TrEMBL record:
InterPro entries: Flavin_trans-like, Flavoprotein, UbiX-like. It comes from the Bacteria. Dimethylallyl phosphate binds at Y167, K183. Residues 8-187 form the Flavoprotein domain. HAMAP family: ubiX_pad. The lineage of its organism: Bacteria, Bacillati, Bacillota, Bacilli, Bacillales. Coiled coil: none annotated. Belongs to the UbiX/PAD1 family. This is Flavin prenyltransferase UbiX. The gene is ubiX. It catalyses: dimethylallyl phosphate + FMNH2 = prenylated FMNH2 + phosphate.
Length: 205
């Protein structure tokens, strides 16, 4: 019997700099036909305001307006809603991406604290052996940060630092954002056309 379940990804946005990465990821997943379960930390909302100018009075209404081209395809979950669907392993999603991922959230995931919905949802991905990608955005890194990343990497988590490349000659910030989002999608085996790959004729010009 054919599975008619809508394919969904969980996306987390934390208070690390680089909220534009998470927003572009959501837009891309939606454009590819996926449903997105979205969790934004309180610090993440602040960074969305400071970096992207989001003036938020009602969070759900703001998201409906921002992603109006994809009605009913974004489900927002409050960070404190531990009873949300994505907090249970019995709720089926394809996997989860936290982009950008703060060092505090990375630590919570590495140590299984599950003290909010974002960390709990990530813990579900680990226990159910589903794809989990973290995009840390911090510099410089100290030994605790590196140890936590190593712990997660050994568990099969993909660590994709927010490091844009320049071999494809980016002409704008959007180009660099798309490159990183594309690298995340590569980790998830999701086809995209966000950047020119090394070896393509256009990249060598």
């Amino acid at each position: 019997m054919k599975d008619k379940r809508e394919r969904s990804w969980v996306v987390g946005i934390t208070g690390a700099s680089g909220s534009i990465y998470g927003v572009r990821l959501i837009e891309t997943l939606l454009s590819l036909g996926y449903h997105v379960h979205l969790v934004i930390s309180n610090a993440g909302w602040r960074v969305l305001k400071e970096e992207l100018g989001w003036q938020v009075v009602n969070r759900e209404e703001m998201l409906q307006q921002r992603f109006a081209a994809y009605p009913d395809r974004v489900t927002y979950h409050a960070i404190g809603d531990i009873g949300a669907s994505i907090a249970s392993g019995s709720y089926l999603v394809e996997g989860m991406i936290i982009m950008p991922c703060s060092m505090g959230t990375l630590s919570s995931v590495a140590h299984g604290s599950s003290d909010n919905l974002m960390a709990r949802a990530a813990d579900v991905m680990l226990k159910e052996s589903r794809p989990l990608v973290l995009v840390p955005r911090e510099t410089p890194l100290h030994a605790i940060h590196l140890d936590n990343m190593l712990t997660l990497s050994r568990l099969g988590v993909k660590i994709v630092p927010a490091m844009p490349a320049f071999y494809f000659h980016p002409k704008s910030i959007d180009d660099m954002v798309d490159f990183l989002v594309g690298k995340v999608l590569d980790c998830l085996r999701i086809e995209h056309q966000l950047f020119t790959r090394w070896g393509d004729s256009s990249a060598e010009q």
